[in-house]
Design a protein that fits this description.
about 30% helix; two-stranded antiparallel ribbon; alpha+beta; single chain; about 170 residues; six-stranded antiparallel sheet; 4 helices
């Protein structure tokens, strides 16, 4: 894993099901919360190595075994976070270890698990008591940086990725 440059940006994808009174995505703190399977790492995509549309499309190429279908992707939104701003939390001693590039690559690629060369990680320190504070700070950083999504492009990308993954299933 390598550290991301300060001047770069990472993307966090969220479910876009609630809106506030101004019709903006209701950016719940839970979208920045860690779950046990996260192993202290909040997953993000490094914008230097992907596009906003590709970030959404990878969700649409993921297989949901409970539903026996690909995941819904058209209910997502993407927000940007400045790496430098995230590191201000580390400098203040607020529970962030750093921001690392940690690609998720399988060779060969697995059905329903798209490779993600842009995958990165906001690594939390193990202080669980800081997590709510960290999540609220990351949410605060992200809320002013919603990203525009080209849904026509996303739909094309998803179609291609799903075709590729269906071929892997055979």
């Amino acid at each position: 894993m390598s550290l991301l440059p300060n001047e770069d940006e990472v993307l966090r994808i969220v479910v876009n099901t609630k809106r506030d009174k101004d019709n903006n995505v209701d950016l719940s703190w839970r979208y920045f919360d860690l779950f046990p399977h996260d192993v202290g790492c909040l997953s993000v995509d490094w914008l230097q190595m992907t596009t906003i549309d590709e970030t959404i499309a990878r969700v649409g190429a993921q297989w949901n075994p409970r539903k026996e279908d690909f995941k819904q992707y058209d209910n997502r939104a993407v927000f940007g976070l400045s790496v430098e701003r995230i590191r201000t939390l580390k400098e203040k001693g607020i529970g962030i270890v750093d921001v690392f590039h940690s690609p998720l690559l399988n060779d060969p690629e697995l059905f329903g698990v798209p490779n993600n060369a842009s995958h990165s990680c906001i690594q939390f320190a193990s202080h669980e008591s800081d997590q709510v504070h960290i999540c609220s700070k990351l949410r605060e950083f992200a809320k002013d940086n919603p990203k525009e999504i080209n849904w026509d492009n996303v739909n094309e990308l998803v179609e291609k990725m799903r075709e590729t993954h269906m071929a892997l299933k055979k």
